[in-house]
Amino acid sequence: MNHIILRNKSLLAMATVLVLVSAACSSPDEKTEVTQKSVVKTISYPTVPVKFINPEYEISVPAELKPFEQVEVHARVSGFVKQLLVDRGDYVRKGQLLAVLEAPEMNQTYLSDKSTEQKLYGDFQFAIQAYERLVSASKTEGAVAAIELERAKSLMESAEATYNASKAGSAHSSQLQQYLRITAPFDGVITNRNISVGALVGTGANLPLFMMAQGNKLRLTLSLPEKHAASVKKGMQATFTVSSQPGKTFPAALSRTSGLLDQQDRSLTLEFDVENPSGELQGGDYAQVKLKLQRKNSSYWVPTQSVLSTQRGTYIMTLNEKKMQRIAVKEGIRLDSLTEVFGNLSSNDNILLKPSEEIKEGIIN
Fold it and tell me: Which of 363, 268, 273 minimizes the C-alpha distance to 319?
């Protein structure tokens, strides 16, 4: 038994020596080749081609419904409120009488101006007759001196001018009396009444008699961010919803824009005229508007995950003919999984799907 154990130990020792001798006899080149094969790994960078397209996209922006016209109704002359014919919530037509004022001194002024006008009219008629008599008499040679004829003509013209001035004064007084009747400037609804019968109103009062708004037509107003401003087209269609009527969608068409960006929030103001004959919508409601927009020209689009945002800026990485390059871009619109970018790109560029700051620029083996 001991003989067998000794024999196994001898065989094991011989095998160990053979392995060591074989390793020692191996060439250095063979060792290096084996090491390199175990260390070198092939790195691949998935890429996609950049897209040069002009897609239609949809955005949703908040907006506000406002009355198409809204005014404060003031009295143009001073007076006391004699009658109030409407109240808050009343619908009125253009030219409808809203209130009547009284100002006795204004009536007396008118009567005085009218009386003066009539007197001056009589003086004017007398001057005309006097001039015509002299003209008739002057046909007899030597009956009327030329200077007398000129004096009569001058008196007639002066009387005419005085009469015309008085007539204008009477018309002014009469017009002021018309201002004692307060009428509606357009079809609409009385939204507020600030006075009562007997109140003194006039040009010196800051408080309006009524607040009035047009309800059968509304303005849908929204602020469009700067990056979408170039996509606005004349007469473009939109749809909107209001929280007071869930589930209902209303159409609208673009009527006008501000033309320039607001300097405070860098936005373009859009207005849509909304017909509201049944009064279904209310001025002052907040709305959510959906717009379908499209650029005027095509632009470059890349997968959103291909945009690399770092402390130094926003970049994408291109891999063209084994050359890695980092290109600074500015982001535009996002559409599903694509992002619009602006930078030094061409239609033949291939974009890295998953760029990172660790990837170096240069030639890739």
Answer: 363
DSSP state of 305: G
Residue 17 DSSP label: H
Q: For residue 63, what are the β-bridge partners?
A: 222, 287
User: Comparing C-alpha atoms, which of 133, 155, 154 is closest to residue 144?
Assistant: 133
Tokens 């619109």 found at: 333
What pLDDT score does 110 carry? 80
Distance CA 143, CA 130 (A): 15
What is d(CA 330, CA 342) in angstroms, rounded to the nearest whole number? 5
Q: What is the pTM of this model?
A: 0.63
Q: Where are the alpha helices (DSSP H) in the chain?
A: 2-25, 28-39, 104-137, 146-178
Task: Indicate if the alpha-carbon torsion angle 296, 300, 303, 305 is positive or negative.
Answer: negative
Residue carrying structure tokens 């473009």: 236
Are the beta carbons of 83 and 100 closer than 8 angstroms?
A: yes
Q: Give yes or no for a contact between 67 and 188, defined as CB atoms under 8 angstroms apart.
A: yes
CA quadruple 225, 226, 232, 234: dihedral positive or negative? positive
Nearest residue to 99 via CA among 194, 25, 1, 29: 194
User: How does DSSP classify residue 299?
Assistant: E
Residues of the chain falling short of pLDDT 70: 1-42, 205
Distance, in Å, from the CA atom of 293 to the CA atom of 21, rounded to the nearest integer, reads: 79
Among the listed residues 270, 267, 268, the one whose alpha carbon sits nearest the alpha carbon of residue 253: 270
- Specify the length of the chain in residues: 365
Nearest to 236 by CA among 255, 250, 218: 255
Report how far residue 181's alpha carbon sits from residue 76's, in angstroms, rounded to the nearest whole number.
10
Please give the DSSP secondary-structure letter assigned to residue 360. Answer: P
